[in-house]
Write a structure and sequence with these properties.
The complex is a heterodimer of chains A (317) and B (478). In chain A, β6 and β7 form a beta hairpin. Chain A contains 15 helices and nine strands. In chain A, the strands form three sheets. A five-stranded parallel sheet of chain A has the order 2-5-8-1-9, sandwiched between helices. In chain A, strands 3-4 form a two-stranded antiparallel sheet. In chain A, strands 6-7 form a two-stranded antiparallel sheet. Chain B is built from 20 helices and six strands. In chain B, β5, α19 and β6 form a beta-alpha-beta unit. Chain B starts with a helix and ends with a helix. Classes of the chains: A alpha/beta (317), B alpha/beta (478). At the A-B interface, α3, β1, α6, α10 and β9 of A face α2, α3, α10 and α12 of B.
């Protein structure tokens, strides 16, 4: 196993390592304000070494998108983002011929040649072949995020957000770029990546992704953080919060997540709650405060009622 | 290492996890890039390369723990024993000072000392101490017999029973309360938080005990043999009818994302299933930007009619959990149907649609059915004939040619009359009549099962034992 898989793919050099070691990734991410656990840091490190995309899954609001942004920050790369939605197609994701401009070019050609014809007899209008070459050149190509990431000269991080929203058939668009970092355009040929971008795909798991897509990626599941990490996140992201309050918030949220709710509080909701408490000048959460501000953490009325009953049953009376 | 990895991948596949050759190669490549002695890093590396779905993570973890058990066969007998932890060392000093556990280390602690160590470990949430507790508790209580082909669940049970975790927890909470009340009243919230904190620690301890038992079993019989004993089906392949209570909880958890996924998929298919006719106005409007050339034709979206669903479910004894899962799933995607009505029966029958209309969450309604629905007529043993007869008298007028009728049950009729003419009549009125049977096909027709008598009147009789089969059936229904 001395040859890397990238050699076999003909990618050539995968470039110098972006990160020294797994702990270095972790520290680096912490410096740009993303507190990764060992699993996250490990997968990011491997993604770089193996030159493979990372498929990030997990509940909403646990920092999947933020991870890609932070990695871009850390490596000083430009972030190119492709937001997926139903009905996304080739012309929005990869490239599109600018047919308005092409039409204009053809019409302009006709006008010019008619004009020329009047002045200089014997002049031929451009042949069909020339015209075809001309209007299918890079000048008439509109690059969309995927092609842009491939063609970029500077380092980029490509984020393909909520990939589970596109139809199964559209996923196939991504396969070529994910495994070989290239895009084939029938009229132009194959565009190879000049530098290998780091690729992150996020998914909210609203449907199974295809095997073909999964096989090409490293898989990272980001779950709700454990209490220590959550506490650290709160402290890092909410300025002016006291240690006791951060601890209390983290513990209440952990307890809430053990209750059977329709939508569990996410990290971002936790942070919103902590910020609210700080703004309100509350130093210690008692039952009444918790009850009044539960709606920041929970988004369904039935959840709020259930949580209040489970957690704060004494306040009801 | 490569051989070990190959064995590991082989075992994952035997567990039903789809691991492709490329993924195996990726894993082999990836382990070169990480410090191999770091067990956690190895776990995440193999996880990232071999496992591509979070529902498989659990099975992966279990297999990983067997193949790469902590401290297996190496000098690392557990750092706790060497006393590199201050609190633990202190504790050892103290017990040795009492002249009881001299020299022999933790293995020969008395039951009282063990209990005290457990108490201290939970009180401080100290990992090293927990591991020490696990080690000596397993030695003391588990009574592992060498060479027996078991998975270790019984050993775990025996150890935990002797540790009396619940009592220790009560004691911890009571004591913590005692301390706090001196500062002021402890609110319900604080109490709950405190309880959760200790419960988390108790779980950590449970896990430590599990690790310890596993380690010893692997030492005894080798990883491959143990992996075979503990192999478990994935949640979606669990047999609903014979699931244990714990497995039912796993199923319950799996059901929610499953129903959400199904709903999204169906909604999407409805919209994109086929192209409608050309939308002339929209096409002309689009063509304006290309100088009147209709480059980009637009189509109308078709709106296919939604079916009506009537669910008639047996909720007696063994098939009850199956009926609950099905009801839950049907209601989770009820936006895909124009109308859903549900009836449950044992020997009497009752309409339960109202519970679902009232509740936000199908899970609530399903829970309510168990306590509130009026389904017992004589003795509370399944009587399909009577239940169907009553259904026909009271509700058959509302079955129309747009209705699909689903009957859920094992058709074990306790030798009552079948009254299968009801199904024949229903089939004439309804669009479809389906029967979902949670029993394995081989058992159909044995004993008091009268599925054959009903089956001839149905459009299809479907074996539906696992969530996977259930999901497929409901998905095809729309």
């Amino acid at each position: 196993m001395t040859t890397t898989s990238t050699d076999q793919l003909g990618l050539g050099d995968i470039g110098p390592a972006r990160f020294g070691s797994i702990p270095a990734v972790r520290e680096g991410l912490a410096d740009v304000g993303y507190l990764a656990d060992e699993g996250i840091a490990g997968v990011v490190y491997l993604a770089d070494r193996l030159a493979k995309p990372v498929l990030v899954e997990g509940p909403a609001g646990t920092g999947k998108t933020q991870l890609a942004k932070s990695v871009a920050d850390l490596t000083g790369a430009r972030l190119i983002r492709l937001q997926c939605y139903e009905g996304l197609d080739e012309s929005k994701a990869l490239y599109e011929w600018n047919y308005r401009k092409q039409l204009l070019r053809i019409q302009a050609g006709q006008v010019l040649s008619e004009g020329d014809l009047a002045g200089t007899p014997g002049h031929h209008s451009p042949s069909w072949h020339e015209l075809e070459e001309d209007i299918f050149s890079e000048e008439f190509l509109l690059t969309r995020p995927l092609l842009e990431a491939i063609r970029a000269k500077e380092p980029v991080v490509l984020l393909i957000d909520e990939v589970d929203r596109v139809e199964l058939e559209t996923e196939a668009l991504l396969l070529e770029i994910l495994s070989e970092y290239q895009v084939s355009i029938p009229e132009l040929g194959t565009v190879r990546a000049t530098q290998l971008p780091m690729v992150f795909l996020t998914s909210n798991n609203t449907r199974e992704l295809s095997e073909a897509l999964k096989r090409r990626c490293l898989y990272l599941h980001i779950d709700y953080p454990d209490i220590d990490r959550e506490r650290a996140i709160i402290r890092a992201k909410v300025p002016g919060i006291s240690d006791e309050l951060a601890d209390q918030v983290a513990r209440i949220v952990r307890s809430l997540r053990t209750i059977e709710l329709r939508k569990l509080p996410s990290v971002s909701e936790t942070l919103d709650w902590a910020r609210t408490l700080v703004v309100l000048g509350i130093n210690s959460v008692d039952a009444a405060t918790a009850k009044d501000s539960l709606h920041i953490l929970l988004k369904y009325q039935s959840d709020i009622e259930r949580a209040a009953k489970e957690l704060l049953n004494a306040v009801e009376g | 290492m490569l051989n070990l990895l190959a064995g590991f991948v082989e075992e994952l596949r035997r567990n039903g996890l789809p691991v492709s050759l490329t993924e195996h190669l990726d894993a082999a490549e990836a382990v070169h890039h990480i410090p191999i002695e770091d067990r956690e890093a190895l776990k995440y590396t193999l996880g990232a390369t071999l496992i591509k779905s979070s529902s498989h993570w659990h099975a992966f973890e279990a297999t990983f723990d067997i193949y790469f058990a902590r401290g297996l066969g190496s000098g690392e007998e557990g750092p706790g024993l060497q006393g590199d932890d201050e609190e633990l060392a202190q504790f050892q000093m103290r017990t040795e000072g009492q002249g009881q556990a001299g020299g022999g280390g933790m293995e020969e602690m008395t039951a009282e000392e063990l209990a005290e160590l457990l108490y201290q470990a939970l009180l401080r949430g100290n990992q090293q101490m927990m591991r020490a507790v696990a080690r000596s508790a397993v030695t003391r209580y588990a009574g592992i017999e060498k060479g027996r082909p078991v998975g270790g669940t019984y050993y775990l049970y025996r150890t935990l029973r002797n540790l009396e975790l619940d009592q220790v927890l009560d004691r911890l909470i009571a004591q913590a309360k005692g301390e706090r009340t001196e500062e002021g009243e402890l609110s319900a919230l604080d109490e709950r938080l405190l309880g959760d904190e200790f419960r988390v620690r108790a779980d950590q301890l449970r896990k430590a005990v599990e690790d310890e038992i596993r380690r010893r079993l692997v030492e005894d019989r080798g990883a491959q043999a143990l992996a075979k004993s503990v192999r478990k089906p994935l949640p979606e392949d669990l047999d609903v009818m014979h699931a244990t209570r714990e497995e039912l909880q796993t199923l319950q958890r799996a059901l929610r994302p499953l129903s959400r996924k199904l709903a999204v998929r169906l909604a999407r298919r409805r919209r994109h299933h086929r192209r409608g006719p050309l939308d002339f106005r929209a096409t002309v409007r689009r063509s304006l930007s290309t100088g009147g050339v209709p480059v980009d034709p637009r189509y109308r979206h078709p709106r296919p009619a939604k079916p009506e669903i009537v669910v008639i479910a047996d909720i007696s004894g063994s098939v009850a959990s199956f009926a609950r899962f099905t009801l839950h799933l049907v209601y989770a995607i009820q936006s895909q149907f124009s109308k859903v009505r549900s009836f449950v029966f044992v020997d009497g029958i009752d309409e339960v649609t109202r519970f679902f209309e009232r509740a936000d969450d199908p899970a609530d309604a399903v829970a309510e059915i168990n306590t509130e629905a009026d389904v017992v007529w004589v003795d509370g043993h399944s009587d399909y004939g009577h239940a169907l007869g009553v259904f026909y008298d009271r509700w058959s007028k509302e079955i129309t040619n747009r209705t699909s009728v689903l009957v859920l049950g094992d058709a074990r009729n306790n030798y009552h009359a079948t009254e299968d003419w009801v199904l024949a009549e229903l089939r004439k009125k309804a669009r479809h009549v389906y029967w979902l049977n949670p029993e394995p096909r081989d058992y159909w027709g044995s004993g008091d099962s009268v599925i054959a008598a009903y089956g001839v009147h149905c459009d299809a009789v479907v074996e539906c034992r696992t969530l996977r089969q259930l999901e497929k059936f409901v998905g095809d229904l729309v």
